[in-house]
Amino acid sequence: MKFRPFPSPVVLLLALLHLYVGVRLLLPFGAVTQIAGWAVLALCLWLFPKGFWIREDRAPWAMLLPWLAAGFFSWLLVLTVARELSLLVSALALSPRLHESWIRVSAVGVMALTPLITLIGFFMARRTAPVVDVEVPLAGLAKELEGFTIALISDIHVGATIKRNFVAAIVDRVNLLQADMVAITGDVVDGSVPDLAYHTEPLARLASRHGTYFVTGNHEYYSGADEWIGELRRLGARVLMNEHVVLDHDGAALAVAGVTDWSAHHFDTSHKSDPHAAARGAPAHALKVLLAHQPRSAHFAEAAGYHLQLSGHTHGGQFWPWNFLVRLQQPFTAGLKRLGRMWVYTSRGTGYWGPPMRFWIPSEITRIRLVGE
């Protein structure tokens, strides 16, 4: 998978943002601090776009550095803007002498907090995702399905910086849950099958009573969806392409349906996402669970009669404050929400994309447990 270099207007905007941060933070200090600060900003500006110039032959560290620079500058910018607000308050509330002191103290605070938050966010992103337990209360749940568990993983993004060991650790943790089924709601990869098959191979070890079910995410379509559909099948997953399977769990029927990604028709018109088609023919009495990569399938899923939708895509925003922007595109950001007669659970993702950053918004492996309402 490759991205083109940033267009000139984007580079210009990045340069202006770096200039803004430098002017606002460095001017209160002497020459040595200013030279060091401008050098760091110049390095960030040089590295930032390189994270998008993905080449499969680049070493992981060569991708990590640009993405770390992107995460570092994102926090630097956010904290600088927050500092502006604090300066406005101090100008109104403090004496001139204290305000002048706060100008320097707050700048030092931004410059100290940014690397600290970047480091914490990096370790939170690179660790194996913790297990999050979620109970979904369902009216009229068959007694045989009481306590049925689904291990949900989503948005691993195997690629430039996430490799085989990262995936293997996820698989080991999922298998410890001894779930009744495993659901993978898309965006497993960022790259081609020849480049990443070795790194996704541990997914073949996923174990559960009823098996593993997978639906495509938008990044599968960026990476060659047909090839990845074949590869996930080879690894033992049941790929649900606007279709369902009916599980017999101790005599109770559970219809597990899956749709292609919301955007799939832009890549292949035959892959157009269709929750209604996925439910067609399912037993009327069966509990219906839909796997859909993007939460915005939910309104169509609720109309099609599903009881629960499991999604990913959003990463929960991945790191603050970008989580607030998710709602501009998706109806749900993270967690369990109600939509009409249906529950929607949106995973924060099991890996990360781009900057290895998870500050304040941790990754997750979700153990969904069905319970009677």
How large is the radius of gyration?
23 Å
**Sheet with most strands:** 6 strands, mixed
Number of strands: 12
Helical percentage: 40-55%
What sort of overall outline do the alpha carbons produce when their principal axes are compared?
A: elongated
Terminal residue distance: 45 Å
Beta-strand percentage range: 15-25%
Task: Describe the overall structure.
By secondary structure, the chain is an alpha/beta fold. The protein has a six-stranded mixed β-sheet. A six-stranded mixed β-sheet has the order 6-7-8-9-11-10. Helix 1 packs across helix 3.
Summarize the structure.
Helices cover 41% and strands 17% of the residues.
Topology:
Blueprint (H helix, E strand, L loop, with lengths): L7 H19 L4 H17 L12 H34 L2 H31 L4 E8 L10 E5 L10 H13 L4 E4 L8 H8 L11 E3 L3 H5 L2 H10 L3 E2 L3 E7 L2 E7 L16 H5 L7 E5 L6 H6 L4 E4 L11 H4 L8 E5 L2 E5 L18 E8 L1
Parallel strand pairs: 1-12, 2-3, 3-4, 4-5, 7-8, 8-9, 9-11
Antiparallel strand pairs: 2-12, 6-7, 10-11
Features:
41% helix; 373 residues; six-stranded mixed beta sheet; alpha/beta
